[in-house]
C-alpha cells in the first residue's frame, strides 16, 4: 500500500504550496533572490518578532554566518548544549572556534542554565574569549530565557538562539528566534514549515543582518564588476523555495494546531502509564514539533527501545532523542561540563510520529499500536 509507512515528521504540502511555486515559476524569477525571497523575509521577521530576516540555504548556513558575524574564529570559544542536532556544533567548527558542551535540564532537555553560569565564570577566570552562547529550543520548546539571558548578559557574551526547531513556539508570549542578538530558523524537510531545504537568520541588529547578507552572496562588493575583498559563501535561498515557504506560512497556524492536538492525545494516553513522561511537558508555548516520551524502565517495566521495536515492526517510525555531542566520535576530546542528564535522555527517550500531515487513519494506527504494546505488558 502506498504511503503505508508512518513517518516521524513528514512534509505537509498540498494545493496551496503548488499554486505558490507555480506562480513563482511563471513569474520568471527562478534565480536565487527575487520578490518571493523579499516577501518571505518580511513575513518571517513579522512572525519571529524581529526587525530583520535573511533567507538562507539552510539553518546550518544561518548558524555559520551568525557565529562568524559575532566574532567566532580560532582562539575563541562557543558554548553549545551537548543535547542538540549536530548542525549546532558543526557550525562552530566551520568558524575555527572551539566548541564547549554543556549538559541539559532533564525535565526539558534544554541547556542547564545553572551549569552554564558556572562554565561562563570558569571561562572568564581562564581568560577565554567567548564569542557566543548558542541555546537550542529543544524540539520546539523555548529555553527559560528569563534565567538564561541575565546569566549571559552578566558575562557580556552574546546569545545566538538556535530556534531551528521552534518556529511558532513562544516563551512568555514572545516568539522563538527573538531572544538573542540573533536567532536561527530551519525550513528543512522534517521541520514544522519546510522549503524542502532552507533557513533564516532573524535579528533586530541591522548591521549583523547586512553583514550576513553580504557574506551569503560571495562577499561581493557593490561594484559593476565582480570585486571581492574577503572570502564569502553561496548561502542564499532561491526564489522558488521562498514561494514554497510563503505558502507554508499561510498554513502555519493550522499545522501548529494539528501538532498540538496530537501532543494532547499522547499526553492523555501516557498520563495513565507508570514510568512514562513527556519531555518538556506543560510548556504552554511549545510548537510541539516532536512529541517525545521519556521512559523509566524500572517504573514502566519496559524500555523505550521495546516500544521502538514494536512500532518499527508495524512500519511506524520513531527515533531516540539526539545522541549528545560529547558522545559523538567526531567531538571526542572536546571540553564538556556534564551531569549525565543528556546521556540519560538519549538512553530513555523516544520521539513519536508528530507530523501535521498525519491523517486520521495513520493517527489511529499509531495509537492502536501503542495501545496494543501497553496491553501486552
Ligand atoms: C534542523 C536543525 C538545524 C539545522 O538546520 P538545517 O536547515 O537542516 O541546516 C540546526 N539546529 C537544530 C537544533 C536543528 O534541529
TrEMBL record:
Annotated Gene3D superfamilies: Aspartate Aminotransferase, domain 1, Type I PLP-dependent aspartate aminotransferase-like (Major domain)
GO biological process: polysaccharide biosynthetic process
Record InterPro entries: DegT/StrS_aminotransferase, PyrdxlP-dep_Trfase, PyrdxlP-dep_Trfase_major, PyrdxlP-dep_Trfase_small
Pfam families: DegT_DnrJ_EryC1
Keywords: Pyridoxal phosphate
Chain positions with N6-(pyridoxal phosphate)lysine modification: 191
Entry annotation: catalytic residues: 191 (proton acceptor)
PANTHER family: DTDP-4-AMINO-4,6-DIDEOXYGALACTOSE TRANSAMINASE, TRANSAMINASE
GO MF annotation terms: pyridoxal phosphate binding; transaminase activity
Listed name of the protein: Pyridoxal-5'-phosphate-dependent protein
Ribosomal protein recorded as keyword: no
UniProt xrefs under SUPFAM superfamilies: PLP-dependent transferases
Similarity field: Belongs to the DegT/DnrJ/EryC1 family.
Cofactor(s) needed: pyridoxal 5'-phosphate
Amino acid at each position: 500500500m502506498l504511503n503505508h509507512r508512518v513517518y516521524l515528521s513528514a512534509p505537509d504540502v498540498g494545493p496551496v504550496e503548488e499554486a505558490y511555486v507555480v506562480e513563482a515559476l511563471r513569474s520568471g524569477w527562478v534565480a536565487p533572490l527575487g520578490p518571493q525571497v523579499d516577501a518571505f523575509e518580511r513575513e518571517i521577521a513579522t512572525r519571529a518578532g524581529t526587525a530583520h530576516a535573511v533567507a538562507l540555504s539552510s539553518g546550518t548556513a544561518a548558524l555559520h554566518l551568525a557565529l562568524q558575524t559575532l566574532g567566532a574564529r580560532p582562539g575563541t570559544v562557543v558554548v553549545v548544549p551537548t543535547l542538540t542536532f549536530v548542525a549546532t556544533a558543526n557550525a562552530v567548527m566551520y568558524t575555527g572556534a572551539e566548541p564547549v558542551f554543556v549538559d541539559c535540564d532533564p525535565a526539558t532537555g534544554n541547556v542547564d542554565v545553572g551549569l552554564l553560569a558556572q562554565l561562563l565564570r570558569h571561562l572568564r577566570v581562564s581568560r577565554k574569549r567567548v564569542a557566543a552562547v548558542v541555546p537550542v529550543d529543544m524540539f520546539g520548546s523555548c529555553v527559560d530565557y528569563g534565567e538564561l539571558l541575565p546569566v549571559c548578559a552578566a558575562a557580556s557574551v552574546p546569545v545566538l538562539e538556535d530556534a531551528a526547531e521552534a518556529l511558532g513556539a513562544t516563551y512568555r508570549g514572545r516568539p522563538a528566534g527573538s531572544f538573542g542578538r540573533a536567532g536561527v530558523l530551519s525550513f528543512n524537510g522534517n521541520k514544522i514549515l519546510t522549503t524542502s531545504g532552507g533557513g533564516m537568520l532573524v535579528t533586530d541588529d541591522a548591521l549583523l543582518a547586512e553583514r550576513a547578507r553580504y557574506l551569503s552572496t560571495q562577499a561581493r562588493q557593490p561594484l559593476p564588476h565582480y570585486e571581492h575583498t574577503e572570502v564569502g559563501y553561496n548561502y542564499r535561498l532561491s526564489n522558488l523555495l521562498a514561494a514554497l515557504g510563503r505558502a507554508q506560512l499561510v498554513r502555519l497556524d493550522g499545522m501548529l494546531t494539528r501538532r498540538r492536538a496530537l501532543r494532547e492525545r499522547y499526553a492523555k494516553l501516557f498520563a495513565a502509564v507508570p514510568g512514562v513522561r513527556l519531555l518538556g511537558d506543560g510548556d504552554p508555548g511549545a510548537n510541539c514539533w516532536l512529541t517525545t516520551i521519556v521512559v523509566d524502565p524500572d517504573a514502566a517495566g519496559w524500555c523505550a527501545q521495546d516500544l521502538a521495536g514494536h512500532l518499527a515492526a508495524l512500519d511506524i517510525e520513531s527515533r531516540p532523542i539526539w545522541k549528545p555531542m560529547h558522545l559523538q566520535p567526531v567531538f571526542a576530546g572536546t571540553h564538556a561540563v556534564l551531569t549525565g542528564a543528556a546521556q540519560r535522555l538519549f538512553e530513555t527517550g523516544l520521539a513519536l510520529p508528530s507530523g501535521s500531515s498525519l491523517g486520521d487513519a495513520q493517527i489511529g494506527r499509531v495509537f492502536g499500536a501503542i495501545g496494543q504494546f501497553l496491553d501486552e505488558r
